[in-house]
Amino acid sequence: MAPEPHRVVARRHQTGDVVTLELAPVDGESAGFRAGQFNMLTAFGVGEVAISISSAPRRGAPVEHTVRDVGAVTHALCTVGVGDIVGVRGPFGTDWGLDAIGAVDVVVVAGGIGLAPLRGAINELAERSGGPDSSNQVALVVGARSPDQIVFADDLDRWRGLGVHVEVTVDVAGPGWDGSVGVVTALLPGVPFDPANAVAMVCGPEIMMRFTVRALADRAVPLERIRVSLERNMQCGLGWCGHCQLGPFLLCRDGPVLSCSPELLQLVAQRER
Ligand SMILES: Cc1cc2nc3c(=O)[nH]c(=O)nc-3n(C[C@H](O)[C@H](O)[C@H](O)COP(=O)(O)OP(=O)(O)OC[C@H]3O[C@@H](n4cnc5c(N)ncnc54)[C@H](O)[C@@H]3O)c2cc1C
Ligand code: FES
């Protein structure tokens, strides 16, 4: 339960209110993790929150977390400086299941900062795909509120260079934006992947995930091959306190990544209490 002290070795702004922190343990090596898992981060003297790991697992490398400043704890985390100490507890939860994915097309759909828990998985998939000539397609569809809210802009270009089919859309275009305008689901009919041999990974606001699952199902992707990452208020992270309960699931233990089912979609449609 005790947070391990980690030093901030680098920080960079993604957008006006989103910051990526690279954390290295003060003593020893970072705990291993799998793409899609999360840590509990402590801003000492303020509190502890769940934050997804936004880097790919790499032995000895600092572990990255990308935080949106929405309240007291995330504000404290977004304003730490290089050299400051934060606490890390974890990793917790389920992952995107890349080890068992096999030779299939992968379609990734992210809304806003929902790209953070997917970034490590996309890095791994892009590196293992064998480049633009690979027979298995990796496609990424990203939605943001406006062009200045797009996170990991450098990664999008790098992934394109590695053969990932990347499409970006915004709700509201700004000056100089000549890309797509509209919701991610409007792009899905044209995204290149073979629904009969594809796995989908989705993370973003819950309403966006519900419509995205429906659009993927319309393209005949079976529900059980669509994985979503869900968020609920987390406290212990260990399946003890029940704060993160969603129907029969404790999301810190059984999630955050779950395979879709009609029952899960119904639960997600209910408001969190
Ligand atoms: C598994 C998991 C992974 C997460 N990964 C990330 C991440 O990678 N980056 C990131 O910035 N945030 C992530 N979050 C959300 C993050 O935990 C919350 O934003 C944080 O707890 C807010 O705490 P606060 O004290 O800063 O704000 P508070 O004062 O607690 O809340 C401020 C506002 O944020 C809302 N809020 C609080 N908790 C959540 C939540 N869990 N989800 C959505 N809105 C919330 C509140 O309703 C309120 O409107 C994740 C949450 C979970 C459960
Ligand atoms: S956060 Fe305590 S049971 Fe999940």
List the helices and strands and how they pair.
Layout: E1 4-15, E2 18-25, E3 38-43, E4 47-52, E5 63-68, H1 72-78, E6 85-92, E7 105-111, H2 116-128, E8 138-144, H3 153-161, E9 165-170, E10 180-181, H4 184-187, E11 198-203, H5 206-218, E12 226-229, E13 245-246, E14 249-250, E15 257-259, H6 262-269
Parallel strand pairs: 7-8, 7-11, 8-9, 9-10, 11-12
Antiparallel strand pairs: 1-2, 1-6, 2-5, 3-4, 3-6, 12-15, 13-14
The structure holds flavin-adenine dinucleotide and FE2/S2 (inorganic) cluster.
Flavin-adenine dinucleotide binds next to strand 4, strand 5, helix 1 and helix 2.
Please provide a written account of the structure.
This protein has 273 residues and is an alpha/beta fold. It is 20% helix and 31% strand. The protein contains six helices and 15 strands. The chain has helices at residues 72-78, 116-128, 153-161, 184-187, 206-218, 262-269; strands spanning 4-15, 18-25, 38-43, 47-52, 63-68, 85-92, 105-111, 138-144, 165-170, 180-181, 198-203, 226-229, 245-246, 249-250, 257-259. It has a seven-stranded mixed beta sheet, with helices on both faces. The chain has a six-stranded antiparallel beta sheet with strand order 4-3-6-1-2-5. A two-stranded antiparallel ribbon has the order 13-14. β1 (4-15) and β2 form a beta hairpin. The longest helix has 13 residues, at 116-128. It is globular and about 50 Å long. The two termini are 26 Å apart. The model has no long low-confidence stretch (mean pLDDT 93). FE2/S2 (inorganic) cluster binds at residues 234-237, 239-244, 250, 252.
